[in-house]
């Protein structure tokens, strides 16, 4: 971490302590998302970290962004996820949008005034994303969308949605990507999911019934929607990895603090070697994950994303988050299982990190495909 990153994260840490931490136990219980927290993060300058200043972004690197997400996730995994999905939408617009689309949609997203969401999954096509059924039929002046998207992070609170729909034949080549806005005729929100974790981040169905999308809202060209989605996910997966690191780090911090003060058998439980081995493994795995996330972030900063590294970072950091948060509950024992301490919340929030933006089994599929290609050459 360089001097700039140290300053950035320590002042952001203070912001999160003052503005996020005080609400989290209550809001997790109530399932309450607060737009003012998101807008506060925007005013702070972290809702468009890697976007160029020309579009209202901070113009920083993906490595800086990884530290930003790690820091927010130490206080709230769901708010870090809201920032990361909205940032993925921004990177899609930046990399695949035309000049007009960038100018029109990016400033409200980078400033945190609006939230962005990404709509790929459907009830029968999660991992097999190319098998989607939502259609976009060519009509005069644009496309008519019909179908339902599922498990959409920030569904209902986002304004701008990147929606993948089928314009052509079967498989990935028949998919196109569109910009759809909340309020567009024929676009409505379905069921809000009741979840184990991520309670302050709404997850919702999106329903398209004869929703007209003008031609100018097509991204790239017809048939390139799957590439748009996968390109976005390379960046999104590194971000989810960074959130996993923050989640694990908070659980580790809580475990060390607690074990240094909790006395059993006339000594701090930290002084039992069994606990020391556990805490050392938790710290080592968290640091290893951080290094992998930064290695993948470096590939994004170089301008040629390394999909294999992006998947590896997501896999390692989110499996670590699950393991470390589960161990943290064990270290804290009885109180760890109660909402008196935050570790049970972080354990619930960690679970879905292994599922979103491609399950960790799908990350292994991506890694194996790259390995095969490399060794076949
Ligand atoms: N970047 C750009 N293009 C890519 C790419 C990448 N990283 N990976 C693949 N592509 C392209 C391929 O080159 C190919 O295009 P061409 O034919 O033009 O070369 C096209 O995409 C199809 O690729 P595949 O043949 O590999 O496609 P597949 O059907 O075998 O699927 C898969 C591959 C890896 C399994 C993919 O379906 C996948 O990643 N599935 C998981 C889906 C997922 O991650 N969903 C997350 C939902 S979003 C979410 O969770 C966000 C949230 O709300 C928090």
Automatic annotation (TrEMBL):
One of its GO terms (molecular function) is acyl-CoA dehydrogenase activity. Residues 3-113 form the Acyl-CoA dehydrogenase/oxidase N-terminal domain. Residues 117-211 form the Acyl-CoA oxidase/dehydrogenase middle domain. Its EC number is 1.3.8.10. It comes from the Bacteria. Keywords: FAD, Flavoprotein, Oxidoreductase. Gene3D superfamilies: Acyl-CoA dehydrogenase/oxidase, N-terminal domain, Butyryl-CoA Dehydrogenase, subunit A, domain 2, Butyryl-CoA Dehydrogenase, subunit A, domain 3. Transmembrane segments: none annotated. Signal peptide: none annotated. InterPro entries: Acyl-CoA_DH_CS, Acyl-CoA_Oxase/DH_mid-dom, Acyl-CoA_Oxase/DH_mid-dom_sf, AcylCo_DH-like_C, AcylCo_DH/oxidase_C, AcylCoA_DH/ox_N, AcylCoA_DH/ox_N_sf, AcylCoA_DH/oxidase_NM_dom_sf. Residues 223-371 form the Acyl-CoA dehydrogenase/oxidase C-terminal domain. Its cofactor is FAD. Belongs to the acyl-CoA dehydrogenase family. This is Cyclohex-1-ene-1-carbonyl-CoA dehydrogenase. It comes from Peredibacter starrii.
